User: Fold this.
Amino acid sequence: MSIKKTILMGLARHVLTIAGGALVSKGFLSEDLAMQLVGGLIGLLGMAWSADDKQQRSRKIPKALPLPDTSRVPPILPDNLPVQTPFASTKKSGGFILSERSRENLVGVHPLLVKVVEMAIAQTPVDFVVTEGLRTEARQRQLIIWLLCRITKSVGNGAITNS
Assistant:
């Protein structure tokens, strides 16, 4: 609750307590009934303000936008680029070439990602290997658990470790 609403709730409680005291002194209410009414009214007022606050917050949160239709989006890389595919010739084109192991690991990977890897290997001054391509759900879970264990371990020690 904001400071302004906290002050208003305190003020409302005092006003209702004074009004209840006046009604008790005039003999219209018993002291117990006045305390119950003041407590009940403050509770209702608090719930109303809370509901209003939540409604105002929900207006500020934008609704999720629908995912765009990607069938009409042009490809990032044109199909006519002279890029090797995993099963293309292994001739060296000025840079390194992918090993058979790397090519096997690219089987099933999205064609655009394969093109990016092929372009990178052809242009890089440092050789690299594709160690994993398309992962199974079980392997992805295994890697997430491993990562979470490392994060937990590093947070517990106060520093990220390389173990």
